[in-house]
Automatic annotation (TrEMBL):
Domain of life: Bacteria
Keywords: Membrane, Transmembrane, Transmembrane helix
Protein name (database record): YeeE/YedE family protein
Species this protein is from: Methylorubrum podarium
Transmembrane segments annotated in the record for this chain: 7-25, 45-64, 85-103, 109-132
Listed InterPro entries: DUF6691
């Protein structure tokens, strides 16, 4: 049985959202407790992150044995061997946002189904930030890639 790309994306997204809910990553209080290493640290999410690293490592090993992915014409993997200023700046901005709000994009989008005002506010702010990036730096990034 071959799944279409939209069906595969839907199933993958539902599985990802279920994993986020099950793991506790959709609970900002739990996330902030994990990030508070100097206070009342909650180490439970370390198992979730460790599992994610393990799955990613297995995925890279599997990719090395494949000539092409099952549902795409080619693999899309990072090609830069060293981090650059844009990556480091983006990672820092992501970390600051995660630490301030207790949400990162995946759990926030999955949390939209709950309809809670903090989730809605975070996703709205995230979308505004994405739009601002597209208007300012996004055009330059597309031009460089072309």
């Amino acid at each position: 049985m071959t799944l279409s790309h939209p069906a595969t994306a839907l199933i993958s997204g539902l599985l990802f959202g279920f994993g986020l809910a099950l793991s506790g990553l959709m609970d900002p209080e739990r996330v902030l407790g994990f990030l508070d290493v100097a206070g009342t640290w909650d180490p439970s999410l370390a198992f979730v992150l460790g599992g994610a690293v393990g799955v990613s490592a297995l995925g890279y090993r599997l990719k090395a044995r494949m000539t092409r992915p099952w549902l795409a014409p080619r693999f899309e993997v990072p090609t830069h061997a060293r981090p650059d200023a844009r990556l480091l700046g983006g990672a820092a901005l992501f970390g600051v946002g995660w630490g301030l709000a207790g949400f990162c994009p995946g759990p926030a989008v999955a949390g939209l189904v709950l309809g809670l005002p903090p989730v809605l506010l975070f996703v709205a702010a995230m979308l505004v930030g994405m739009l601002l990036h597209r208007v300012t730096a996004g055009g330059r990034a597309v031009a460089r890639r072309a």
